[in-house]
Amino acid sequence: MSLYTATSVILVFIAMLASYRLFLGPSIYDRLVSLNVVGVIITIILILISVETDLGLYLDIALSFVMLDFVGTMAMVKYLEGGEFV
Amino acid sequence: MISLFLISLGCVMMFTAALGVFRFTDIYMRLHASGKAGTGGMIAILTGVLLRIGLNQISGKIFLIMVFILFTGPITAHAIGRAAHVHSGATDNVPFHDVGVETEEDGGEEHVD
Known about the structure:
The structure holds two protein chains of two kinds. Chain A has one domain (3-81). Chain A is built from four helices and no strands. Chain A has helices at 3-18, 20-24, 28-53, 57-81. In chain A, helix 1 packs antiparallel against helix 3 and helix 3 (28-53) runs antiparallel to helix 4 (57-81). By secondary structure, chain B is mainly alpha-helical. Chain B has one domain (2-92). Chain B has three helices and two strands. A two-stranded antiparallel ribbon of chain B has the order 1-2. In chain B, a hairpin with a 6-residue loop joins strand 1 and strand 2 (109-111). In chain B, helix 1 (2-23) packs antiparallel against helix 2 and helix 2 runs antiparallel to helix 3 (57-87). Chain B is elongated and about 50 Å long. The A-B interface holds A 3-4, 7, 10-11, 14-15, 17-18, 20-21, 27, 29-30, 32-34, 36-37, 40-41, 43-44, 47-48, 50-51, 54, 56, 59-60, 62-63, 66-67, 70, 73-74, 77, 80-82 and B 4, 7, 11, 14-15, 17-19, 21-22, 27, 30-31, 34, 38-39, 42, 45-46, 49, 52-53, 57-58, 61-62, 64-65, 68-69, 72-73, 75-77, 79-80, 82-84, 86-87.
């Protein structure tokens, strides 16, 4: 087991710990905070898979995932705040 | 050796962020834990990976992703905190340290917080 695989396994358990608030948080904002942390961990795992298998395809997937995560979080926050979309 | 230390430090910081989100009692405390420790752990892990693989085509894209998360992490944390604060009853035009509004129907002053 190489270093990247071990780091990926550790990060999966950390994501399971952080997604406790995602499933049964008291409010919707707790779920958003937990989703932010889980999204960053998923991005790191995709980068580690790409370095381990030496495939550049996963880096494009990781970059698209980061951009869609940011846009989705901002849209949900604007909807919850009650403002109008620009 | 330095890259191994950086990856271990990043795992510990990411565990701290997850533990803060899991264990803290308020939305602002959870935001404090995830906003700084999550971004710092990501920076540490990806810097360790960059030191390990050297300079090639993959490391440029990894650096691009790192800079993107470094820019958009605080923006996301600020937006979530502002939305939670607005949802708790404060209005948009009043500064955040002074959330008492004055209603015109009864002329009185009521504090909404």
